[in-house]
């Protein structure tokens, strides 16, 4: 919570202004009943019209002042709360950007979205209500009561009793809503998670005709949320009429006691109106303050959820003395080495990689092949430090990657993930994502190497063609080639292709590999290819065969055909006779 409060610091004076203007507004509001009483007692009842006009003018002036101070308080309060919410959102976003993949898994993406949107909105709204309603309430109640006592001491006591009873009843009813507010947040998380899954999986849902099932699943989650929301609203449904009833009872008490006082000549009739006004204003203020008070635990639980995000120390962090030197200064270039690397996922019982060692040098292609779940993608994900190894070392250009800053490390890598992801924008903007300042020529060159230039040029708007979120308006192969161009445009030292040719036809696959071979020779880069298809890696300098997280064989295609049974089985199942002999494009 400390970090949250710290974010409020820059706006403390704006917050003070908001409270001061609210107080001024309240003073104006409380001043009016007294003037009103005087108009009746000294003006209307005495037939003194000039006094009525004078005090009427004063009343108008105070009413205008009240309006102006209210606007000023609302503007300041909104400035503080909106700025605070903006800063908080930014802080949560920046923090989430620092997370490792395991850190993301701890929260889940749906919960992170709810925290960054809904939770912050609740805090912002509560903060606004605290500034405008809760903080000025005690002063308002005290000043109102003093004015009531000044009007008539006995009536002041009657009013204090009414306010105490009403406040107590309102609090005891309203406090029942507090635990429900907490539950609402959890239900909202659940709802967002399901909605996100349904929207992103819409094609699968339609293909398998599971609309009804998903409708029920979403409906049931909505019902859960709705049930709690109804319970909460039931409490407020009881609370609000109860308060209206208590206010009216209070007014009747004032009329009864006040009527007696007036008939005894102890009080003037105008004062009864003033007392009724004081009571209404104070009860309204106290009621609002109690409602805000009910909201605080909800905001508090949102605050705790946000603090969890802000306080989490990212699993992967740069060392204090992390190297950030330009890769051009290192003596070795484009060399990747795995040295006895073992790794286990945080929530898994067994290691997925055991004692993996290999070296891939500049200009070389190292391919990784193996059965599903053998750990190929895990190897690819360890290179840019999406996860950290448990044992052993990964070295780039002879330096342990944990000694490099993450920025430096990732600037040396061109990563093409297994699941292609494109951003909403144009083809050019997606390729430029790899290098912000890439020129048009660089973009076209990268697209040519990635075998994407031809299909991009055939599109009506070429490189300015629209790409929908996630690249859903492009084919799998087109998306993969744009993702490859995005990595190529960086001109990194090490390319990591995590099964990134799977959606390409054989001809494009072959042309792409040929262009890539040329690319790594020219740029002195090395290529790591995770593949399912043996035909994609026949010409690799080194093929690593993985079997259940362990290296079952290393060598060229021909060497492995002789020495590695696991590889031979994969190759025989995929290649024709002539290909088996060795195919070089
Ligand atoms: N984030 C994760 N958390 C826990 N376990 C994981 C995670 N990602 C992968 N695994 C597990 O690690 C093992 C290796 O997964 P990996 O994705 O590296 O295999 P792969 O060889 O690339 O498979 P495929 O060819 O099917 O993509 C699998 O058993 C998988 O269930």
Automatic annotation (TrEMBL):
PROSITE patterns (UniProt xref): ABC_TM1F, ABC_TRANSPORTER_1, ABC_TRANSPORTER_2
ABC transporter domain location: 336-573
GO cellular component: plasma membrane
InterPro entries, alphabetized: AAA+_ATPase, ABC1_TM_dom, ABC1_TM_sf, ABC_transporter-like_ATP-bd, ABC_transporter-like_CS, P-loop_NTPase, Type_1_exporter
UniProt KW Transmembrane keyword: yes
Compartments where found: Cell membrane
SMART domains, per database record: AAA
Domain ABC transmembrane type-1: residue ranges: 18-298
Name under which the protein is recorded: ATP-binding cassette subfamily B protein
Lineage: Bacteria, Bacillati, Bacillota, Clostridia, Lachnospirales
